Structure formats: C-alpha cells, structure tokens
Records
---
Amino acid sequence: MHVVVVAHTRFALARPFAGGLESVTWHLVRALVARGHRVSVFAAAGSEPIDGVDYLEPETIELSEAARADVSMPDEGNLQRHHAYLALMLDLAARTDVDVVHVHALHYLPTAMAPTLRVPTVLTLHTPPTPWLESALQVAGRSAARGVGRMPHVTAVSAHTARAWRHAVEAEVVRNGVDTDEWTPGPGGDRLVWTGRITPEKAPHTAVEIARAAGMPLVLAGPLSDARYARERLMPMLGDGVEYAGHLHDTELVDLVGGSAAALVTPDWDEPYGLVAAEALACGTPVLGLSRGGLREIVRDEVGALVVPDDRLVGRAAAALPRVLEIPRERCRRYAEDHLGMAAMVDGYLEVYERALRVAEIA
C-alpha cells in the first residue's frame, strides 16, 4: 500500500534524533519500506533520507510587507507550521494515489482536516492531552457524525496514554518499538547512564542525585532542549563522577548504554511511553526508573525496578540499585526482543491500516 506518514515540522527526522517521537517515526518509515510498502513522508527539511521514500517538504509562506505590518501578526513559527500543514492537507485531499495517511504530528490541522481526505487517516497519540488536539478531534468527530468524511482511526503509544485520552477519544494501543538489530547487547560496566532530552520534565538532575546517593559515577547524554534549565540547574551539578557526554549519534549511544551497569530513567512527568528504557533493555542494561506513566508497562521486576516518585525517592532509588545491578544482562536483552521490538509495532500499525481500509470500503 501507499502510506503517507505525516511527521511534525519542528525537528528533522535525522540522527541524532531530537527525541523519541522523531526516532519512532523515522524507524517506522524505514520498516514499512523494508516490508515492501510505498512510503511518502511529510517532515522538516534536512530529514535523513531513506532509500525509496518520497519526501514532502513543508511549503514556506511568503508574506507581504503589508501582512507583516498587521498589529495582530502571529508568531512566525506558528504561522509557518499552520501554512505547511494546511497546504499538505489540501494537496492530500486531491490525490488519488494514496491508501492511508498516518499522522504522528502534534499539530491540530491534520486531525481536524482528516474528514476531507478520500482515504482513511490513522492518528497516533504520542503525548498527554493537549487543548489543540482535543479541539481537532471534536471537530473531526462532528464532521464524521454528520456523514462528512471519516473520523481518524486513533492509536496510542501505551495503555497509559490511551487512558489519559479516554475522556476525548477511544484509542487502540500500538506500543512503540525499538530496533533490536540497532540497539545491540553491550558488556556492561561500572557506571550508570541517563539518556534523553535535557529538560526539566525529563529531570536528569534527579539521576545525578540518585547516582551520588549510591556512590556511583554517571554519564548523561542528550540534546540540550532547554538551554536555561541545562545552564542553571544541571551543568552546575557536573563533576565529582558526573559527566555530560553531549548529544550522541545512535551508534555512540548504543556503546554508552551497553557499556553501563544500569540506566536511570527519572521523569518528572508521566511518560507517554519511555523509549529510553526500551533502548537500554535492548542493550542488556537493566533499568532503575520512576513509577510513572508508560514506564510501568515497560520496566518489569525481572529487568529492573521502579520507585514511587515522592520526597523519599532518591534514598529509596539508591537502596534499590544493588538488586538492579544483579539482574542478568541476557535476561534484559531477551525481554526486549520478546516484548519491545520494532516488528511488533509495525505489525500493529499494518493491522490498523488494513482495518481502516476495510471500514472505508464498507462505507
């Protein structure tokens, strides 16, 4: 089939990835092509090419000086995104060579305009509820109820995320997957590791506190997504066994994570999924995390430990670490292969696509 994957336009789908959303979207596209499907991708300029993929770059708006002089001129970045998605959806509404449109974007327009398309749309929820996307789902739902087009088929990356959205929409769970051919087993080591976006909600500072309480060295890696937080909160904590390795390419991350004794996953929010935990387990590295959001679906007792995020979490996490360090690495790797792999995710989405096409035929 011909699948159009709609990513968001803020970050390119390119390694090193800006975050889990970009990583999952890029790997899904590559896996669909490997399965023999035709794939077109709408993504930010500079996305990493995949053989056989047609890239639909966002259209850029060209405003007149008169429009720019308007006192109500909106933020230009938001206006550019609005223009790009509007142009895309109008183009897709006219196309006759597409079977399914799969939306991974956080923007509201692809969802709100899904009923205008001739083909079914699949929407994947990657985040907690947002007001703009809730609004778009309501608009699409009303259009479908009036017999104008079809409501998107909605999926969520975890059961936790599906529950978070239940007041607005019923979402089928298709969990994120990790490429276990890319994230390969490592030998372990004597240090801890933390990976992810450097932001307050990811809370790498909590990982530093846990490592210090446990008396173990720690390496942090990830993009500085919040420069102020990094400068004022995290960087002053470096030294004395804690170092920041930078924003690493996937191959470097595999070496770092696979060469670590355990991975710390310390979010200060309810993770919609928790891809870094799945990546660590694929490397054979056990996980010590916080019992929040989708992490509860990934980290089981046999491959790690989860600590309740309260005012005693640092001490209890440090106390739990010795048991985590004793978990056999082979068990973590086998668990990732059996439960967290990319193949299961792709199978799940292909089933959703085929079901959506059958429903469209009946309609």
---
Amino acid sequence: MNPGLFVLLAVAGGLGAVLRFALDGAVRQAVGSRWPWGTALINVSGSFLLGLLTALAGHGLPPGLLPVLGTGLLGGYTTFSTASVETVRLIQQGRAAASLVYGLGVLVASVAAALLGLALGA
C-alpha cells in the first residue's frame, strides 16, 4: 500500500467513526436508549452504501475510491462489534426476546440493504 492511500484510508476511517458517533448520539437523544436504534440504523445504512459502492465500482468508479470509501469511511462508520455488545446487553437486562429480535433483525436488514445497494448500483 502506498503512503498516500494509507493516509486517505486513515482519514476516511476516522471520519466514518466520527459520523457513527454523531449519528448514534443524535438517534439516542431523539428516541432514547432503551433499544439500540442508532447502531441498527448505522449498520443497515452502511451495508446499503457499501453494496451501492461495490456495484458502482464496476461502472466507472475511480479505482482508488472503493478502498477509501468502502474500507475507510464505511469501515469506520459501521460497527458489528457494537451491535454484538448491544445484543448481549439486552440479554443481560433480561430481555432475551428483544435480544433475539435485535440481533437477527440487524443482520437480516443489513444483508437486505446490501443486496438493495448492489441491485440499485448495477
């Protein structure tokens, strides 16, 4: 990897993390924190955007843009680990059914969003 790409990936990843933090905070403020809506929204929207970018890469997207936006920006933006911890926290709160719905729901919705992004970009 050349130094320029390394720097772009790092900056894009940092920007994605800041976007995730800001959006999650805004969602928590708007709807509360009993249910992790922010992380769900982030992972579903990130999956859609990555699907779209991946499809567009085959239609003239500049070659260096996919790693920077996909791996960097969207890699910093989405967060499987936070979704996993939030699923476990629901179990710890005695909300096993909510945990199951959340964990599977985010997974299914994220895969569907990626599929939609791929289809729209094709």
---
Amino acid sequence: MPHVIGQASDASHDLSHLLRVWRNVQLISEVEGGNQEVLVAATLLHDCVDVPKDSPMRSRASRLAAEKATALLDSYGWTKERTASVGHAIEAHSFSAQIEPVSVEAMILQDADRLDAIGYTGIARCFYVSGRLGRALYDSEDPDAANRKLNDLDFAIDHFKTKLLKLSGSFQTESGQALAKMRHNIVEEFLSGFLAEVSSGNGH
C-alpha cells in the first residue's frame, strides 16, 4: 500500500479508484477465474507510476508501472513466473498502451479498469480530469461536433465520442462485456441528455 497511496494527488487514480477496480475484478473473476494473488498485486500496483494524462509519456505509463511492480515483487521473494504474470496484467491494462492481454488475469484487470471509465463513475472521472487540465465542458458554437472535428483536448464532452463510447467494444471477458453494456447505456443516455440541454436554441 505505501507504493500506491502516494498517487492520491490525482483523484481519478487514487485509493478509491483501486477499491472500485478491485470490486470489478472480484465480480468478473467469480465467473472467469484467475489467480487471486496475481489479481490482488496487479490491481494494487497497476497505477503505481503516476504519469499525467497530458504527458507525452502517457502511453508508457503501464510499462513503467509494470517495471516498478516487478522489481517490488522480486524484492519480496515472488517467483519469476508470478511477477511476470503481474507485470503483463499491469502492462496490458492501459487503453493507450494498446497491448493485447493474453492471460485471464490480464483480461480481468483490463476489463475491471475500463469499467471504471464508463457508467456514472466514468462520467464523473471524465469531467474531473478535464477540469484539472483546464478543458471547457463543450464547444458552445457546435456542442455535438456536427461541423467540426472532435477535440477532447479542448472540450470534455468530446471525450465521450473519442473514447468513452468506444470502450464497451473492447472488453475481453463475457462477464466484463455484460457489465460494460449496462454502463455504456448510461454514458449514451447522459450524452444525449447533455447535448439536448446545451444545444437548445443555437441551431443544432
């Protein structure tokens, strides 16, 4: 725990995030199986290296976390096989890293982490991160990007179409897919309602 508590400066990747991901891991692994010790270690350490969302190093965050986790578990006397299992699960969990998970534990962690990016919690996290980075809620001229390119670097609501609504199609396990479908519907409903509110009277 001392190796993960220090990341609490970002409330989208703090202890409460780890607890939510662990809850998702438990829900999925009840059906899909997986080694519980590997899953616990991978869940706790999957964000143990803090790389800001707007950093050019962001796509390497999961690799850096995997390296740190592997070294840490080696120091605790874990076998090479188990540390490798944890390292792969951590490395493959990230959306931006684009690494295909090949073990059941890696598939479960990836699904569990992505579940936290959609649904009600995912919506809250999206606006929290956008606020920290100084992004506007939406483009008042064209909220739904009908006549412009999507730009989630400037507008929070654009992130729904550039990423959040794409996530449900990337889940690895049947259990994760079922949970993702429900949360995806929540995101769709929110986006539709939000755009209906902010687009009123501006010609869109």
---
Amino acid sequence: MDSAQFQRQLEQEGFSDILTVEREADGMLDEHTHPFEAKALVLEGEILLRCGAREQRCRAGDIFHLQAGEPHQEFYGPQGVRYLVGRK
C-alpha cells in the first residue's frame, strides 16, 4: 500500500488528523500513552513497539495501530523511522 492509498483509508475510517512523523536514529520513548487512537504506515526505517509483553517490529510498508490510552514504549532503528499516521 502506498501513502496515498493509506491516507484515503485513514480518511474513510474517520482519522481526520493525518501527519508524517520522523524520529531519530536509535532513539526511544519510555512507556507512555496518547489521548488519541493512532494508525500508521511506516514509510522508512524501523520502529519496535512494546505494549506490555507484546512486541511489534515494523519496517517500511508495515502498519501499526494503537488504541487511545494504550501504554507502550517506542524504539527506533539505526536509521530512525518516518511514518504517516492518522489520529482520532
């Protein structure tokens, strides 16, 4: 799925706040939550999401989805990560 297709899908699913996020190489965010639901398509690089005991590694072309208030940690790959994300 390309970014234009993904953006259309997000809009159809009611994600009105759509933006591109870039994170630094080998960076991370400790456990935190967001007050919004997020669905993202990784465009470049890599991200590892840790939600409790569950881990999800995403690379270019992969999609990840987090519910509002879901505690998680984020770890960025050696080239960082860039993703298109919808929030609602």
